[in-house]
Amino acid sequence: MSATHEATPPTSELNYLNNGWTWQSWLLTGDHKRIAMLYVISITVFFALGGLFAGAVRLELITPQGDMMDAETYNKMFTMHGVIMVFFFLIPSVPATIGNFLIPIMVGARDLAFPKINLLSWYLYVIGGFCGLYAAAVGGVDTGWTFYTPYSSTYSNSAVIATAMGAFVAGFSSILTGLNFIVTIHKMRAPGMTWGRLPLFVWAHYATSLIQLLGTPVIAITLVLLMLERAFRIGFFDPALGGDPVLFQHLFWFYSHPAVYIMILPGMGVISEIITCFSKKHVFGYHFVAGSSLAIAILGFFVWGHHMFTAGQSTYAGMVFSLITFAVAVPSAVKIFNWTATMYKGSVSYETPMLYAMGFIGLFTIGGVTGVMLATMAIDLHLHDTYFVVAHFHYVMVGGMVMAYMGGMHFWWPKMTGRMYPEHWAKLSAGLVFIGFNLTFFPQFIVGYLGMPRRYHAYPEEFQVFQVLSTAGASVLGVGYLLPLIYFTWSIFKGEKAPPNPYNAKGLEWTVPSPPPTENFRIMPVVNEEVYAYAEQHEEKALV
Amino acid sequence: MRISMNKTLPLLPESASDIAPEIDLLMLAETAFSIFFTGLIFLVVAYFAIKYRRKSEADTPPHIHGSLMLELAWTFIPFVMILGFFVWGTNVYFRAYSAQPNAMEIFVTGKQWMWKVQHPEGPREINELHVPVGRTLKFTMISEDVLHSYYIPAFRMKKDVLPGRYTYFWITPTKVGSYHLFCAEYCGTQHSGMIGTVHVMEQSEYEKWVSGGDESMTARGEQLFSQYGCVTCHLADGKGRGPSLVGVYNSMVKLQSGVVVKADESYFRESILNPRAKIVEKYQAVMPTFQGQISEEGLLQIIAYIKSLEKEEEGGTPQQ
Question: Touching check for B168 and chain A: CB below 8 Å?
Answer without folding.
Answer: no
